[in-house]
Amino acid sequence: MDKEALKEQIMEKLEEVNDPELNIDIVNLGLVYNVEIDDEGNVKITMTLTAIGCPLAGTINEQVTEAVKQVDGVKEVEVDIVWNPPWDKSRMSRYAKIALGIPD
């Protein structure tokens, strides 16, 4: 199993998961902190949300899990939502900043 290729495919799938409030994908928003893949194909996504207490956390968690499970070679998916380091606008890609009208 080529973990780097698998990670790329996972990140591509995560780009299909939009933050429901901002309507920008979670990768370009900088919400995905880490993707770990073990030798059996189990994946752990470490990510955050734009705000603590986000009422849509469960929905985003489900969408991330379903998206990652679509990648060939992935067995189980664990989503770990963390608050440290805290998310801020500096983590956003140039694309996301332009889409939201935030100066670079």
Automatic annotation (TrEMBL):
> Could you tell me which residue ranges the MIP18 family-like domain spans?
7-79
Q: Where is the signal peptide?
A: none
| Superkingdom of the source species | Bacteria
Concerning Pfam families, the annotation shows: FeS_assembly_P (PF01883)
Q: Which PANTHER family match?
A: FE-S PROTEIN MATURATION AUXILIARY FACTOR YITW
Its recorded name reads: DUF59 domain-containing protein
